[in-house]
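Sample pair:
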Amino acid sequence: MDYINIAIALLTIAFGAFGFLAPRYTASALDMEPTKSTMGLSELRAGSGGLFVSTGLWCLITGADYAYFMLGVMYVGAGAGRALSIALDSPPIKKALVFLAFEWPPAAFLIWYNWPV
């Protein structure tokens, strides 16, 4: 089961790397556009990039249950925001559900398997 922890951390780093290193590509994939400012690119590098890369790396470096547990908590938050958006914003539903499928199942596993005892 530890291999699943590692796989999720590696996927987190890979997905985060897109936001961190290629924010314009990420913006396009997320149907976002830079406007008069590049602040949106900065936010993608930070929130959709660096946060995910650093958290995934910390999980791999420490191998600690608490780190993987918190990665799960992070995915719960992302999925909660996605679910709220589905309810209130009417995003493209297929795309939103695919993203949600990459958030809540990993969250459930990481929290369940790494629950502090």
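The two ends are 17 Å apart (CA to CA).
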